[in-house]
């Protein structure tokens, strides 16, 4: 099951799906993973800015 949305898969389907396992039977679907990576990159970019 995805941590951030209602997307879920059975064990057999996780191998062929766009899904990143994080812990045991939970992880993130491709859409949520892209969103989280954008948020993390944005947060890192703000720290590196010089005023």
List the helices and strands and how they pair.
Blueprint: E1 19-23, E2 26-29, H1 30-48
Antiparallel strand pairs: 1-2
**Helical segment count:** 1
Can you tell me the residue ranges where pLDDT is under 50 for at least 5 consecutive residues? none
N- to C-terminal distance: 42 Å
Q: Estimate the mean pLDDT confidence.
A: 78
Helix fraction bin: 25-40%
Order of helices and strands: EEH
Derived structural class = alpha+beta
- Spatial sequence of strands, sheet with the most strands: 1-2
Morphology call? elongated
Structure description:
It is a single chain. With 51 residues, this protein is an alpha+beta fold. It has one domain. The chain is 37% helix and 18% strand. It has one helix and two strands; from the N terminus they run ββα. The chain is elongated. The model has no long low-confidence stretch (mean pLDDT 78).
Q: What labels would you give this structure?
A:
alpha+beta, two-stranded antiparallel sheet, 1 helix
């Amino acid at each position: 099951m995805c941590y951030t949305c209602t997307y879920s898969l059975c064990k057999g389907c996780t191998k062929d799906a766009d899904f990143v396992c994080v812990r045991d039977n939970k992880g993130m679907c491709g859409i949520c993973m892209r969103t989280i990576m954008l948020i993390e990159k944005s947060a890192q970019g703000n720290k590196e800015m010089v005023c």
